[in-house]
Amino acid sequence: MQAKAWKANFTTLTIVLIPVAVGINYVGKFFAATLKLPLWLDSIGTVLSGMLAGPWIGAISGAVNNAIFGITLDPVSFWYLITSIMIGLVVGYLAFTGWIRTPGRALVLGLVVAGVAAVVSTPINVLLWHGQTGNVWGDALYAALVHRGTPVWIASFLDEAVVDILDKVITVFLSFLIYKALPARLVKLFGGAHQEVESL
Amino acid sequence: MALIEVQDLRYRYPDQQGLALDGISFSVEPGEFVGIIGPNRAGKSTLCQALVGLVPHFYKGAIGGRVVADGLDVHKHPVAEVARRVGLVFQNPFTQISGAKFTVYEEVAFGLENAGVPREEMIPRIEEALRLLGLEELKDRSPFALSGGQMQRLAIASVLAMRPKVLVLDEPTSQLDPEGTGEVFAAMAALCRQGMAVVVAEHKVERLAPLAGKILVLHAGRRVAFDSPRRVFAREDLPALGVAVPPVTEAARRLGWRFEDGTYPVTTEEAEELARKNLVAAGGGGGGRG
Amino acid sequence: MQLSLYVPGKTWVHRLDPITKLLAVLVAVVLTFVLPGFFSQAGILLVSLAMLGSAGVLRRAAPVLAGVFILPLTFFVVQGLVYPGNVHPAVALGPVVFYREGLLLGLSLTLRLYNILSAALILVLVTRPSDLVEALVRRGAPPRLGYVMIAVLQIIPIMVASTQTILDAQRSRGMETEGSLWVRIRAFLPLMGPLVTNSLISTEERALALEVRGFAGGGKRTFLKDEQIPPYAMAMRILVLAALVLGIGGRWLWGWR
Ligand SMILES: Nc1ncnc2c1ncn2[C@@H]1O[C@H](COP(=O)(O)OP(=O)(O)O)[C@@H](O)[C@H]1O
Ligand SMILES: [Mg+2]
């Protein structure tokens, strides 16, 4: 099962999925902003593409997402490319091993994704901005911690984690609901379930 | 030799029990216009896709029989190769826009770039395709800024620029308004007049009947008939199969207006012709007044 | 809505080929890390701004640069207050004391941010995205990746346009999109769900349509447009690489900052 999870799954269909995933990310962010939610919800597409087409397509969706926004609307997002890649990889891998079956596991996956995102983003935050994230709540925590003598690395990790946990748990859970609502036939087609043509 | 030769084609989608295509045979000659009709889920789309090899190469599943397109065994060659001989246009104009190009002109070039057509050859091909579909004036527009009918004509032009021998269209007007439908039918008729073989799956039988040389009737994956429109629409079993008949034919049947061979008119022109003949026959003794 | 911020034009920066511009941007970004000193940072920033100026896009750059102001603000506040190396008080606002070391760090972080931004803007504002992608594909980047990049730029405006339709439709059916946090959270899925599901379903037909246009062919490909590289591009590339070598050499041989 594990070897299969890492198998390349680059078909026309999964390639076409990538821009759609990036679009979904953007729309999620847009609706979250329209509804004034205190969350980003800007990686639903990356998570879905990982669930549907596996770790590689998930990772590429994440990378393309940040690369495109990096060279268009938000140059800073380029630096968090690796974070997005990791989200796609982790979700895709666990989806393709068949691990994500129940809503309970989707919640656990959300926590895993939040942890991974925080771990990967922290060095970037430290390298770029001395550990800050630019998120008001996270940075308030950061300031309080650093003020009490907590090392910058740890303060930075907590700064990021505070911001990520709720966001990523909800992101993964919503993606799971949407994934479950898709026609089974389409899910199999994305997953490359059938590789051989039989003869009649 | 026929451009397309389908022999005893059988196909089953993955994870399915029944056959989506069950023993289909027919052929398409150069310059011919073939209509495919049948109720929903009869297998029209599956058959169209089988003519370019998307069935089975894209969907996998199980296949039997043969499809030969312009001498190429479709089951043994990749879609990209078959696509240079057989063009396929789909239902939804919007999803056929590649998304990789910013103008109508570039959109038509997309397939040619993929196929590695040299640049000098590309330009005349694009211009010809745009001209045939009446899109010259729109060439610098964004493909997404077109109306449904224009978008569908762009999809046809994009496939046409690949210079296929046969153009296959799967319900190309089902998502269009009457104006768009008219545009697309006019384009298909014009292409056929220029010698292109056209195969089209279509519900609008009254528009199909005047153009088609032959009509293939599908039901539950099986071929029910493959014949001229007059003979196909004269069949008694069509309503029971859920296949629509042109309103003229329906009316003529009720009135009992038949040609000598027992068929009914399928177009208004034929109905007029028949009416004139009947009038002459009926009014023969009384002396014509017109 | 237009995702790309590209401003069409005919200046020498516009006519410079995408690869040369990409090289210049990369070098500028690398140099901001190689030479973190105040004067080097300011110097690199000036060069980037000068390029933006001679491309006639400073006015379009300004809102982007101003738009991120919150980030430098937090740099100054947070580092000024709590930077571990803080020793010398600089400004006191009542009980709140900002330290010089922290404020200086804030300033250098700010310069770095604006350096990265301005360099990137040379690519973003003055290069047509499809030209950049095509230039990369000509040099061996996978064509399918090129497709993905361009398709993203097209798909996002289209999806954003449909969000408005969905918002209007759901509101007219009585969905509340304002009110308590819980009400707003509950509105999210009904807004997102249909759009996401439909766009995933339509990928199937788009993939089919691409296949019949030879997308998966994998043979040699050709390009509709000829590549235009102005004669001065070579000089520019050499200049940029020289700057990189000088910067790195200066840092490690002569201790520049
Ligand atoms: N991708 C698919 N996977 C499984 N079954 C399919 C698929 N596409 C169509 N079918 C089934 O194949 C049969 C023929 O469908 P189709 O060719 O779409 O008919 P039509 O175009 O005439 O409506 C139907 O029973 C349909 O449910
Ligand atoms: Mg159909």
How would you briefly describe this protein structure?
Chain A has 200 residues and is mainly alpha-helical. Chain A has helices spanning 2-5, 12-34, 44-53, 55-71, 81-96, 103-129, 136-147, 152-181, 184-191; one strand spanning 197-199. Chain C is mainly alpha-helical and 257 residues long.
What does this protein look like?
The complex is a heterotrimer of chains A (200), B (290) and C (257). With 200 residues, chain A is mostly helical. Chain A has a single domain (2-198), classed as Arp2/3 complex 21 kDa subunit ARPC3. Helices cover 74% and strands 2% of the residues of chain A. The longest helix of chain A is centred in the C-terminal third of the chain and has 30 residues, at 152-181. Chain A is elongated, with a radius of gyration of 18 Å. Chain B is α/β, with parallel strands linked by helices and 290 residues long. Chain B has 2 domains: 4-245, P-loop containing nucleotide triphosphate hydrolases (Rossmann fold, 3-Layer(aba) Sandwich); 246-283, no CATH class. Chain B is built from 13 helices and 10 strands. Mean pLDDT of chain B is 93; it is low at 285-290. Chain C is built from 10 helices and 2 strands; from the N terminus they run αααααββααααα. Chain C starts with 11 loop residues before the first helix and ends with a helix. Chains in contact: A-B, A-C, B-C. At the A-C interface, α2, α3, α4, α7 and α8 of A face α5, α6, α8 and α9 of C. The complex binds adenosine-5'-diphosphate and magnesium ion (MG).
